[in-house]
């Protein structure tokens, strides 16, 4: 079921704006579920309206948890050792205890005690990064980060640390930033003692073995090759390259095989010798900061730290400890390095305009949060704002973003505009409007009322922010220790503790033409044309290491007279009206209005579209935001805490509930203990609904719970309206999905600016749409929600009712923007391989090419009308089944009234006609069951990408408790084995991932390799070698003690309490939507202690992975292989013959007893040359679908389908989602 989401989440979060950019990483095992680039830019712009409450909460988690609380401090009395400092000021919702101490050798340590956690974590931040690279060895700091993991004197095994963590369900990671390198790991708390001992030896006695140099340099080279493919990274490096050559800011930081291997070899130098010198000179106690995390007491953590020997680490060279650690001199961007404009050959379908302003270092100005103020003002999205005028008003941009990177060298502020075709041809107009806005801001001065409201809003959101995961809080706090005072470790990156209007004014004054560099990045479709137009006597340049081709000029040369015009506005001699008039006159004289109106006129040639004039209603200069209104001040906490089932809060509080779960309390469910009592059914009568008819069943599918397990004053309302459909009948084509996508964009363009100010005070709304479902959610503070619900629903209904209210130029801009996005493949190829697999398996999922073809056809009057009518024609014309959850800090009456308000205001437009509905509500999306093995052979979708990709997936079947548990345990083993064998030992690619996942109710075993070393056919053979030889041996050789350790690690994962309310919501909502499963978490925990859970079970389960389901008639596996080939002049290679395939299998280590199975599969494989809905329909016709049932108890198995009737429970009790297991070890990435 495809779903399209529109969200408006208005508050820009307090940002970690003083942390450096994480430039380099050690390893990357997967890209499908992570941000490949790992940019640690600290002002994130969310140019398209933010997507969901979960996204908001995630942003709060990422940017807010390092906080400072000026009032309402949470104080905990704890007995501490001497010479320690308790960090008492923290968010009200933070139940953790923090202490800072200095060991006798000078090492600064923070210990974090979390009584509710099952995890331990540790992190070491070292004040040494890419700025410390020797000029002759670019990338040495990054190389050190990699090599540190490959064995120590006490633990010499190169994979020993990873294998140890895997036994405890653990993960490790690291990143290299400009001035710091951060290492971190997490695992079950049972790993604390040995884990810390191993970690300490990293910094005591790393081996730096020469035999691993080439392998790790190859890994770094693969990582760099990934960065080269990233358009953002390329332009960022180009902008930095303009720095003074004497400054480290502009130097190549990542390193590659040339800088770390080829050139040292040619020069007769040793990178290991340089590494040892670097380690000795930079890795010393004064430059190190350690953080530990766990359920242990603070005293016990200090004991473990000392037992591991952190207090005996060497203080290092005197010069290391005395380092001032400042790179401010020479200034990286003095005046003679600014005022440049680069015209750049782009690699993506959408062009960009980058503005780089160099600001002073902000490391000492964190208390005033100047970038938070600046970010809000520049990205304000209300009516007549800068972004709205540039996008909707004039059609120059599709979106904008602001990014910043700060260090001791200075602060680079980037304002990035994503251009339309009109904006690409009129970049000067974008700058005109931007500088006119800056002039208006300067004239108005710092708005202290707004500043104060921002301070109050950040305080409120920080007070109730969700905690970070164990490894995240450890690593973020370790990094913060390298630059923040001890007393403000929990504050400096989050709150406005002291308003600083004078410094803020100086920042605004730094945004001026002579302190700006510009990059105009052309769409990839233009090729070299933009460069050739202006080359002439101008040199065509190429950025070393990144192959960025560009032409450089002075801004004044590229845009004659522009800088004088902008400077005249910035001098402050004009009021807002004068600024607006002068700008409008200039834009008119520049023919911008004529060009924009010509586009509108071309669109309006279709008689079905009304004519428009871009000057009508245009407000210049853009509107500056005013103080945030409606910030909750007297929040009732009456219903904040959920009560335990069968116990009063007085008799058994939340903490005791969780403790009971950990101690094996059997009087009630462990799911209750971890997540609190399940929601109960709520009677909801809906009267006066004239235009939409809800099914009679709605009263049976409305759920309510008061309070949270985690402290939060917020509430969440989730409502899903679903049409009746046939689960296995003909599915809707992509046309409906595209029309709803366009509709959603048009809806948000219309209503989001009007609601922006209303949602700035911490409440959010969300609209999800698919061909058969409408989702509406609200989240925030109860006192604000009634008004927000009324405004959103009124705007929604008004938009649906008023056809032809959308301007044609807006429609065309939205369609063109979507069209360009469909042409862009900016992610790693491995991610697209995963998407292709889903396209082949899941109904309602469509390829980019399918969607693009429809978009091309929809850009006319018929498409315009169809998009405006999409919700009414496709959704609101049907009878809809309502499923809802109200949860949080309110009582039953308030919850019922809020849900009733939403449901009663979903109206069928007067022009829409009801259509008959047949079928049923599809709670569990059906998954295609191919009748024979599938192999997709296509070109790598990223032009110029040198990597092949092999993704091999075995569809295990419908999950039950037995298979979930068995494969859940195996997941960590497979993830580590895939990484160690295919990545570390064989160096097949930088992206290697192995694990277990689920699509709907079907379990999948998969491994992916992306790299240049092997073609995709041979890489698939290597994966089969892993599956058939290495994994069986690992399972066979596993001792009983090791098996019990794996079981315990998995149990600890299941018993991990929810970090915040977002995990509580997910725990219940996903299963309410599915109609089950009750007791699932308890069933899994029970199974773990049963006699059935044995080493033999793992071996038998893996045998089924290798041989296929026991009830399959054919002798092959449900296998899907996706292969991408880096296309050259010869095109996609022909499929190898069976004899060639056998030779490859043998060479890549496939077990001899698996050859017959693989040969049979090869002979019966269906080879595809595309993945789209038509192919999926053919596969479904041939093989049908997996059963759509939920198997929720241990007595139910895939072989006893007649026993399960779980499509809807009469009562939902425990709806725990067992973790979909991924790789056993996290990526080492930024």
Identify the notable features of this structure and list them briefly.
disordered C terminus; disordered N terminus; 39% helix; alpha+beta; 1230 residues; eight-stranded mixed β-sheet; 28 strands
Overall 3D geometry? globular
| Strand ordering within the main sheet | 2-7-8-6-9-5-4-3
Could you tell me how far the N terminus lies from the C terminus, measured between alpha carbons in angstroms? Answer: 33 Å
Quaternary structure classification? single chain
What is the percent of helical residues?
Answer: 25-40%
Total beta strand runs: 28
Gyration radius, in Å? 30 Å
Beta strand %: 15-25%
Number of continuous helical runs: 41
Structural class: alpha+beta
Low-confidence stretches: 1-18, 26-81, 644-667, 1198-1230
Q: On the 0-100 scale, what is the average pLDDT?
A: 86
Main beta sheet, described? 8 strands, mixed
Structure description:
- It is a single chain.
- A hairpin with a 2-residue loop joins β25 (991-999) and β26 (1002-1011).
- The relative contact order is 0.12.
- With 1230 residues, this protein is of the alpha+beta class.
- The chain is built from 41 helices and 28 strands.
- The two termini are 33 Å apart.
- Strands 2-7-8-6-9-5-4-3 form an eight-stranded mixed sheet, with helices on both faces. A seven-stranded mixed sheet has the order 1-20-21-19-22-18-17, with helices on both faces. It has a seven-stranded mixed sheet with strand order 12-13-11-14-10-16-15, sandwiched between helices.
């Amino acid at each position: 079921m495809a779903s399209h989401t529109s969200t408006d989440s208005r508050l820009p979060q307090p940002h970690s704006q003083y942390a450096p950019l994480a430039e380099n990483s050690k390893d990357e095992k997967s890209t499908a579920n992570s941000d490949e680039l790992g940019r640690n830019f600290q002002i994130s712009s969310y140019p398209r309206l933010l997507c969901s409450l979960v996204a908001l909460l995630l942003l709060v988690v990422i940017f807010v948890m390092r906080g400072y609380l000026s009032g309402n401090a949470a104080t905990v009395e704890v007995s501490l050792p001497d010479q320690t400092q308790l960090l008492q000021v923290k968010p009200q919702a933070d139940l953790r205890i923090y202490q800072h101490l200095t060991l006798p050798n000078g090492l600064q340590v923070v210990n974090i005690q979390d009584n509710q956690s099952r995890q331990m974590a540790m992190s070491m931040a070292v004040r040494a990064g890419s700025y410390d690279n020797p000029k002759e060895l670019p990338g040495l700091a990054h190389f050190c980060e990699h090599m540190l993991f490959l064995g120590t004197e006490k633990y010499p095994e190169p994979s020993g640390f990873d294998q140890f963590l895997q036994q405890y369900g653990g993960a490790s990671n690291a990143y290299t930033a400009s001035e710091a390198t951060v290492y971190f790991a997490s695992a079950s708390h049972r790993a604390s003692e040995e884990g810390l001992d191993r970690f300490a030896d990293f910094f005591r006695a790393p081996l730096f073995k020469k035999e691993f140099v080439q392998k790790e340099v190859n890994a770094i080279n693969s990582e760099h090759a990934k960065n080269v493919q990233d358009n953002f990274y390329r332009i960022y490096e180009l902008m930095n390259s303009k720095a003074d050559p004497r400054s480290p800011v502009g130097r190549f930081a990542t390193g590659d095989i040339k800088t770390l291997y080829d050139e040292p070899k040619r020069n007769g130098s040793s990178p290991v010798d340089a590494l040892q010198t670097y380690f000795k000179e930079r890795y010393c106690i004064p430059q190190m900061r350690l953080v530990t995390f766990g359920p242990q007491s603070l005293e016990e953590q200090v004991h473990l730290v000392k037992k591991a020997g952190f207090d005996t680490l060497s203080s290092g060279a005197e010069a290391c400890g005395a380092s001032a650690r400042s790179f401010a001199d020479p200034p990286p961007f003095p005046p003679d390095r600014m005022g440049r404009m680069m015209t750049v050959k782009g690699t993506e379908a959408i062009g960009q305009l980058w503005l780089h302003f160099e600001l002073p270092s902000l490391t000492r100005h964190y208390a005033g949060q100047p970038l938070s103020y600046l970010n809000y003002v520049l990205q304000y999205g209300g009516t007549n704002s800068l972004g709205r005028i540039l996008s909707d008003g004039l059609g120059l941009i599709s979106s904008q973003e602001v990014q910043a990177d700060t260090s001791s060298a200075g602060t680079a502020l980037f304002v990035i505009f994503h251009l339309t075709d009109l904006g690409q041809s009129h970049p000067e107009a974008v700058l005109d409007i931007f500088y006119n806005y800056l002039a208006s801001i300067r004239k108005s001065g710092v708005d202290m009322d707004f500043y104060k409201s921002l301070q109050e809003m950040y305080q409120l959101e920080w007070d109730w922010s969700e905690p970070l995961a164990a490894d995240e809080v450890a690593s973020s706090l370790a990094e913060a220790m390298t630059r923040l005072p001890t007393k403000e470790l929990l504050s400096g990156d989050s709150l406005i503790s002291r308003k600083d209007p004078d410094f803020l004014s100086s920042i605004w004054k730094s945004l001026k033409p002579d302190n700006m560099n510009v990059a105009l990045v052309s769409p990839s479709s233009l090729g070299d044309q933009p460069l050739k137009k202006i080359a002439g006597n101008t040199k065509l340049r190429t950025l070393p290491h990144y192959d960025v081709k560009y032409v450089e000029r002075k801004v004044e040369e590229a845009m004659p007279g522009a800088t004088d015009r902008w400077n005249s506005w910035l001098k402050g001699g004009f009021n807002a009206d004068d600024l607006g008039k002068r700008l409008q006159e200039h834009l008119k004289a520049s023919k911008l209005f004529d060009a924009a109106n010509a586009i509108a006129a071309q669109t309006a040639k279709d008689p079905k579209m009304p004519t428009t004039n871009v000057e009508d209603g245009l407000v210049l200069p853009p509107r500056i935001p005013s103080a945030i209104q409606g910030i909750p001040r007297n929040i009732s906490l009456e219903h904040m805490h959920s009560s335990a089932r069968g116990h009063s809060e007085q008799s058994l509080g939340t903490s005791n509930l969780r403790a009971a779960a950990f101690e094996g309390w059997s009087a009630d469910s462990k799911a209750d203990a971890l997540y609190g009592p399940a929601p109960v059914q709520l009677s909801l009568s809906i009267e006066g609904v004239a235009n939409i008819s809800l099914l009679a069943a709605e009263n049976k599918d409305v759920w309510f719970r008061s309070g949270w397990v985690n402290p939060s004053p917020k509430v969440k309302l989730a409502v899903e309206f679903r049409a009746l459909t046939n689960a296995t009948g003909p599915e809707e084509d992509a046309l409906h999905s595209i029309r709803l996508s366009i509709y959603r964009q048009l809806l948000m363009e219309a209503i989001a600016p009007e609601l922006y100010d209303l949602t700035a005070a911490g409440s959010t709304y969300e609209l999800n749409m698919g061909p058969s479902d409408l989702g509406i959610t609200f989240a925030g503070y109860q006192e604000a929600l009634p008004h927000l619900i009324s405004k959103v629903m009124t705007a929604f209904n008004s938009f649906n009712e008023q056809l032809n209210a959308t301007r044609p130029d807006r429609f065309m801009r939205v369609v063109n923007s979507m069209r360009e996005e469909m042409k862009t493949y900016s992610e790693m190829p491995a991610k697209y391989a995963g998407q292709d697999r889903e396209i082949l398996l899941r109904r309602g999922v469509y390829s980019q090419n399918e969607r693009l073809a429809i978009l091309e056809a929809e850009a006319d009057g018929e498409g315009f009308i169809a998009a405006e009518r999409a919700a009414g024609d496709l959704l609101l014309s049907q009878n809809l089944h309502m499923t809802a959850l109200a949860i949080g800090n309110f009582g039953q009456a308030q919850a019922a009234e809020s849900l009733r308000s939403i449901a009663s205001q979903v109206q069928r437009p007067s022009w829409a006609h009801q259509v008959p509905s047949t079928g049923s509500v599809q709670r569990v999306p059906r998954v295609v069951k191919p009748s024979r093995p599938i192999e997709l052979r296509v070109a790598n979708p990223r032009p110029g990408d040198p990597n092949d990709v092999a993704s091999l997936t075995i569809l295990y079947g419908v999950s039950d408790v037995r298979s979930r548990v068995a494969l859940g345990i195996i997941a960590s083993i497979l993830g580590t084995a895939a990484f160690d064998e295919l990545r570390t030992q064989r160096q097949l690619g930088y992206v290697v991932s192995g694990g277990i996942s689920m699509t709907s109710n079907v379990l999948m075993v998969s491994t992916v390799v992306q790299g240049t070393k092997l073609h995709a056919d041979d890489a698939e053979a290597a994966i089969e070698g892993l599956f058939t030889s290495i994994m069986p041996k690992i399972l066979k050789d596993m001792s009983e003690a090791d098996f019990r350790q794996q079981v315990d690690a998995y149990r600890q994962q299941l018993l991990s309490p929810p970090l915040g309310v977002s995990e509580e919501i997910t725990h219940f909502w996903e299963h309410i939507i599915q109609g089950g499963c009750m007791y699932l978490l308890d069933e899994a925990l029970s199974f773990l202690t049963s006699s059935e859970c044995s080493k033999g079970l793992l071996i038998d389960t893996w045998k089924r992975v290798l041989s296929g389901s026991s009830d399959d008639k054919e002798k092959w596996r449900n296998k899907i292989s996706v292969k991408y080939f880096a296309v050259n002049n010869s095109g996609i290679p022909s499929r190898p013959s069976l004899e060639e395939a056998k030779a490859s299998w043998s060479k890549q280590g496939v077990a001899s007893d698996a050859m017959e199975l693989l040969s049979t599969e090869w002979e019966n494989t269906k080879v595809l040359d595309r993945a789209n809905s038509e192919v999926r329909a053919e596969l479904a016709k041939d093989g049908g679908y997996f059963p759509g049932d939920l198997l929720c108890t241990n007595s139910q198995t895939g072989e006893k389908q007649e026993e399960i009737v779980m499509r809807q429970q009469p009562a939902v009790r425990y709806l725990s989602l067992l973790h979909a297991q991924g790789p056993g070890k996290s990526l080492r990435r930024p």
